[in-house]
Amino acid sequence: MNTIEKFDSNIMHTYGRYPLVMEKGAGETASDENGKTYIDFGSGIGTNSLGYCNDNWVEAVCNQVKTIQHTSNYYYTKIQADFAEQLNRITGYSAAFFGNSGAEANECAIKLARKYSFDKYGKGRHNIITLVNSFHGRTLATLSATGQEVFHNYFFPFVEGFINVEANNIEDLKAKLDDTVCAVMFEYIQGEGGVVPLSRDFVDEIFKLCGEKDVLTIADEVQTGVGRTGKFLAGQRFGHKANITTLAKGIAGGIPMGVCLADEKCKDVLSKGTHGSTFGGNPIACAGGKAVLDYIESGDHLEQVREKGEYLKNKLLAIPEIIAVDGMGLMLGAQLKEKNAAEMAKAALENGLLVLTAKDKLRFLPPLTISYEEIDKGIEILKKILA
Predict the structure, then answer these.
(1) Is the pTM for the entire model greater than 0.85?
(2) Which of 17, 129, 154, 296 is 20 to 30 Å from 84 at the Cα level?
(3) What are phi and psi of 96, to 5 degrees?
(4) Burial 119-137 (b: 16+ CB within 10 A, else e)
């Protein structure tokens, strides 16, 4: 029995998988079990922020494994304290809660927002506005928060208390932001929704209205955060800082981690016993996360992300089949003229390039460390399959 047969015989079929068995990786290149290499323009859906097996990251993680791999959150660890302090300093937030995924980070944000409102205003002010075409996770609560009807099936009853507003529709936002609302939750760039940025006017209006009504802002930066757009947080590119920001994907360089960041107003809302996570703040994950932060702070890497993003965008737009490119930094989505994105992603894999899709677009989330040479090699493969 080969690997794929063994896999399919023993694991639930919850993913549409490509027939590729990943064996190892180095830098921005992965290899399958037969030795074929692939330039990675997807980085594990944005998780391998420093590429595969970055030397400093490996050293930090391995040293932590040899020291202590886990301890209960009834105790303190130095690595979690050091990582949290550095993360709060970089982002300007006051406190962090650690979980294991973006969905968990968003669950924490939802609970925090509802408790903030309950503590201050009592019952009945619990609704959270989310946007049409959003994606916030696969748990029942975050699936309920997700503003895409295609996900609202099978798992009835869904969690109540979520109101959808059309993205970039200010009048719809004004009409639905009533006295039952405790928070507005949004992605600055809707990643799974097709790499669709919000308009700056709409973002400005969210913060203006929420500020007037003491309604919390929740920025889901699971995909846009940790330097992906060329700033540590995408909110910096929009000129705003939400009360609550969630991170995951690239934060620990490929080790499972989710983070809910709270500002001064929200930092003490979740008191003892109101939330928890057995593996949250795991020392190994924190060591990986600190290595990512150390890299980002070690030079002009975020500026390079912006420059590489512009370079990749211009190279993509020079391909005749690509009619538009949306996104920021190294989070881009390419609209195709005639070809099917899913079929092109499969063709790219067959030719040694790993790319993603989002709706009808090809999606690109390469490692922040990708070189111009690797971008050029990937572009040549895209030119070939899109010709």
Answers:
(1) yes
(2) 129
(3) -125, 145
(4) eeeeeebbbbbbbbbbbbb
